């Protein structure tokens, strides 16, 4: 029942100083859009909480808690953030940014399979998280259609490039960084939603 959950996330990577000129910012005074923002602030907070819970499990189970201690392994694995350059550009385009957010959510959704393999005892939480992410991605797509925004499809090559882990330890570190990257993704989305709700 999230109307289009991604307008909010659509602006999520635009610098705050540029948001006033972003195409979707004009909707910020619309009552339905404001309702959408407030509902999705709570939804995003829930997803963030679930990811944080999984990060605590990884910390407690594998003693993998601090990114700075794992940077060398991270470089070997090549795990990167989902691309969002269309949301940073000064020439911000709502269609392109929303499409990248949608695609990023889908990439993280499939990446969580790596975490599920590490934490089978927490399958229920991971499945709920993946369902929430799928719903959010679908909501963004629906929001784009409702606003009459063109759907941009990016090449599938290099999307969700999960490495082949050569050891159990690499697999654990990979899961750690997938969660860390996703949490940053969500934090940016949350800040964008909160900012838009205050305009």
From TrEMBL:
Record has Glycoprotein as a keyword: yes
Residues spanning the signal sequence: 1-18
GO molecular function: cytokine activity; granulocyte colony-stimulating factor receptor binding; growth factor activity
Listed SUPFAM superfamilies: 4-helical cytokines (SSF47266)
Xref: Pfam families: GCSF
GO cellular component: extracellular region
Major localization class: secreted
Tagged with keyword Nucleus: no
Annotated transmembrane regions: none
BP GO terms, sorted: immune response; positive regulation of myeloid cell differentiation
Entry keywords, A to Z: Disulfide bond, Glycoprotein, Growth factor, Secreted, Signal
Localisation per UniProt entry: Secreted
SMART domains with a match to the protein in the record: IL6 (SM00126)
UniProt similarity note: Belongs to the IL-6 superfamily.
Name the UniProt record assigns to this protein: MGF factor
Organism this protein belongs to: Geococcyx californianus
Gene designation: Mgf
């Amino acid at each position: 029942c999230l109307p289009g959950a991604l307008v909010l996330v659509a602006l999520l990577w635009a610098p705050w100083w540029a948001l006033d000129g972003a195409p979707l910012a004009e909707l910020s005074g619309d009552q339905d859009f404001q309702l959408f923002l407030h509902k999705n602030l709570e939804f995003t907070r829930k997803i963030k909480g679930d990811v944080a819970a999984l990060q605590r499990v990884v910390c407690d189970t594998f003693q993998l808690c601090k990114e700075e201690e794992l940077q060398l392994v991270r470089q070997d694995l090549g795990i990167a953030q989902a691309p969002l350059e269309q949301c940073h550009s000064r020439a911000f385009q709502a269609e392109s940014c929303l499409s990248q957010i949608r695609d990023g959510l889908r990439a993280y959704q499939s990446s969580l399979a790596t975490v599920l393999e590490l934490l089978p005892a927490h399958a229920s939480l991971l499945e709920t998280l993946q369902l929430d992410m799928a719903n959010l991605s679908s909501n963004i797509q629906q929001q784009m259609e409702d606003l009459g925004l063109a759907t941009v499809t990016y090449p599938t090559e290099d999307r969700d490039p999960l490495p082949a882990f050569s050891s159990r330890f690499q697999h654990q570190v990979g899961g750690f960084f997938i969660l860390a990257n996703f949490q940053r993704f969500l934090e940016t989305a949350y800040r964008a939603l909160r900012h838009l709700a205050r305009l």
